[in-house]
Specification:
The chain is an all-beta fold.
């Protein structure tokens, strides 16, 4: 059974930093491109970033480029998202999502809540 389990979400002040983690199981983690998707209250899901299966390349949404950095440790089947200079608009539930190809996403984690507030 494929499982993705996120952790690390919490309350942080604007300008602060946070590191999210996602551990995968039940599949060959290193074979898949992985993504982080967030959903703010009252809004639809937003693709935050994606990282290739090797971790050699990543892409970011315009609003987080330069502040967020995705990485992965395939020896531990774990995906990370380092978030710096956090803004209130970065708040939401962050999901670790497996991407099959293009816009096809097949497995989502349960999400971890990030709150950015003073």
């Amino acid at each position: 059974e494929v499982q993705l389990v996120e952790s690390g979400g919490t309350l942080v002040q604007p300008g602060g930093s946070l590191r999210l983690s996602c551990t995968g199981s039940g599949f060959m983690f290193s074979n898949y491109e992985m993504t982080w998707v967030r959903q703010a209250p009252g809004k639809g899901p937003e693709l935050v970033c994606s990282i290739t299966n090797s971790g050699g390349s990543s892409t970011y949404a315009d609003g987080v480029n330069g502040r967020f950095a995705a990485s992965r440790d395939n020896t531990k089947d774990t995906l990370f998202l380092q978030m710096n200079s956090l803004k209130p608009e970065d708040a939401g539930v962050y999901y670790c999502v497996r991407r099959i190809a293009g816009t096809i996403y097949d497995y989502w984690g349960q999400g971890t809540q990030v709150t950015v507030s003073s």
